[in-house]
Write a structure and sequence with these properties.
The chain has 3 helices and 22 strands. The chain has 265 residues and is mainly β. The chain folds into 2 domains: 123 residues, Neuraminidase, CATH 2.120.10.30; 135 residues, no CATH class. A 4-stranded antiparallel beta sheet has the order 4-5-6-7, with no helix packed on it. Strands 8-9-10-11 form a 4-stranded antiparallel beta sheet, with no helix packed on it. Strands 13-14-18-19 form a 4-stranded antiparallel beta sheet, with no helix packed on it. It is globular and about 55 Å long.
Length: 265
């Protein structure tokens, strides 16, 4: 696991903790880890400029993330200049899947040349993809989608003057950018415009928060998904794990809840 300010550590079943590496590059903003077949680890660092996803999203240069490999306590930089890498998973075929949140993309890369741009598995996604874990079916993976894109945010990001005014004149919590948690306060942007009617947030509203996990095949086909929509509560999904066939555990950081998905749930 990644420990903010310290690096990577391993927790044993008996509760003992051992340090894997204290390399300074892994002290902050580690967004994802995966173990490879040879015992080494791949680690994503979302950004070397900021530890906050929202600040990275509104930055003019948002591609400051890194991909690192850890083997026998040694850390090797595989690639940098990534747009908030937020998920990585061994594909079992000599390569790995990598998600770049701000790039709205999941790609496959080869372990033989990990610094080369990969082949897109899913591109121009409607959200900001996060962590990736293997599904029980071979050649399929679960993806957590912490944030969903919306037209209002996309409009602001496309206009430099408007973006600069928002960042320079408003507190970060009032920025019109996606969020993990629902904040029903009077300062929340877009109070009108059919977002809220008679005190209720409408399911079709351009929500700042959302809950989404999906399963994707090696061909890039989404074959299953679970949603908590604009008027739901289980938003800000940051983790997903299929413990056994048909039973999927979902971590909703925005709601502070862990869910179990299954065919009968």
């Amino acid at each position: 696991m990644a420990v903010e300010g310290h690096g990577l550590s391993a927790v044993m079943p008996d509760g003992t903790v051992s340090v894997i590496t204290a390399d300074p590059r892994l002290h902050t903003c580690v967004t994802a880890l995966t173990a490879l077949g040879d015992g080494s680890l791949l680690a994503c660092v979302g950004s070397t400029a900021t530890g906050e996803w929202a600040r990275n999203l509104v930055a003019r240069d948002s591609a400051t993330g890194m991909l690192l490999r850890i083997s026998d306590g040694q850390v090797e930089e595989l690639d940098r200049g990534l747009a908030w890498p937020s998920g990585v998973c061994d594909d079992g075929e000599g390569g790995f899947l990598l998600s770049t949140s701000v790039g709205h993309r999941i790609e496959r890369r080869s372990l033989a040349s990990p610094d080369r741009a990969g082949v897109p598995l899913l591109d121009n996604l409607p959200g900001y993809p996060g962590r990736i874990t293997p599904a029980s079916r071979a050649g399929e993976w679960w993806v957590a989608m912490p944030y969903l894109r919306n037209r209002a945010t996309e409009l602001i990001l496309e206009h430099d003057e408007l973006l600069a005014e928002m960042v320079g004149s408003m507190e970060p919590e009032a920025w019109l950018v996606p969020s993990l948690a629902i904040e029903n306060v009077y300062r929340t942007p877009l109070q009108t415009g059919s977002v809220r009617v008679l005190g209720e947030i409408k399911p079709w509203a351009p929500s700042r928060t959302y809950g989404l996990v999906f399963r994707v095949t090696a061909e890039g086909r989404v074959v299953a998904s679970a949603h908590s929509r604009a008027d739901g509560r289980m938003h800000g999904v940051t983790g997903v794990l299929e413990c056994e066939p048909g039973s999927v555990v979902v971590a909703c950081r925005g709601a502070g809840t862990i869910l179990m998905l299954g065919e009968d749930r």
